[in-house]
Structure to design on (165 residues):
């Protein structure tokens, strides 16, 4: 894990930023990946103003590795999984998690570069939250990568002068 942390730190330094914001939408539910600033949580919501992400591509031209940053009320955080095991829920943290983006004709899939189980690939998966911490909202969890509909996302770019998050 230390190698990935060093790679993220290096990539943060050399990453390129698009002038537009990225909106990440679940293909299955049509909901956007958003920030719940009160809980430092990541949820899915149809129209939250906290849906505008800065997408950073690390190792541009070499790998399809990305990480995502969001700002709210002067605080900046990164989409992160604190553990690399199935069922872990995405949070906002000071350190980003690096993901590989894989695409097919149906959409894009975000796969973690690490897993605590050797040989297992974990991907962003949209699920109902059963932990009770976000009131039953939809959240992002890491689950075994299967290219399932709940793991499929689409990305759109949108220019916004100021986010009101």
């Amino acid at each position: 894990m230390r190698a990935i942390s060093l790679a993220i730190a290096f990539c943060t330094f050399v990453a390129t930023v698009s002038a537009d914001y990225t909106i990440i939408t679940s293909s299955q539910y049509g909901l956007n990946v958003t920030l719940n600033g009160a809980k430092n949580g990541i949820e899915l919501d149809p129209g939250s103003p906290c849906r505008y992400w800065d997408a950073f591509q690390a190792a541009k031209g070499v790998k399809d590795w990305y990480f995502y940053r969001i700002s709210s009320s002067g605080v900046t955080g990164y989409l992160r999984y604190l553990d690399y095991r199935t069922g872990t829920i995405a949070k906002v943290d000071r350190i980003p998690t690096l993901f590989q983006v894989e695409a097919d004709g149906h959409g894009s899939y975000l796969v973690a570069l690490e897993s605590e189980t050797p040989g297992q690939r974990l991907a962003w998966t949209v699920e109902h939250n059963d932990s009770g911490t976000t009131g039953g909202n939809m959240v992002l969890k890491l689950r075994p990568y299967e290219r399932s509909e709940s793991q499929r996302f689409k990305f759109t770019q949108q220019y916004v002068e100021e986010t009101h998050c």
Observations:
- The chain has a mean pLDDT of 83.
- The chain has one domain: 2-158.
